[in-house]
Amino acid sequence: MIKxxxxxxxxxxxxxxxxxxxxxEVCSKDYTPEQIAAWLPxxxxxxKWKSLMDKLKPYIAKVDGQVAGYADLQKDGYIDHFFVSxxxxxxxxxxxxxxxxxxxxxxxxxx
Length: 111
Hints:
By secondary structure, this protein is an alpha+beta fold. It is about 45% helix and about 15% strand. It has a single domain (about 1-110), classed as Aminopeptidase (3-Layer(aba) Sandwich). The chain has helices at about 10-25, 35-40, 45-55, 95-100, 105-110; strands spanning about 1-5, 60-65, 65-70, 80-85.
């Protein structure tokens, strides 16, 4: 079962791992190695990533207690991050985030 909840401080490393997995294992099918290298930081910077997640305030999707994906919606309607780990592709994680991200719900989150 997929459960979705708002971001909580302390989940930053798990979210970075999802981001990294999605880019290295999923997006690499559509982007060159040079593009992937430019997109993905060479190492995890805990302070920088925490600052980014604090700003984005994403929704987090978990499958059996494991972070499987996350997505945000900014006040202007822009989605900066919408990533699902390679391990959880084609299992309904993005759909669950999108349903949780119903425009009315996301507008409330963005306020």
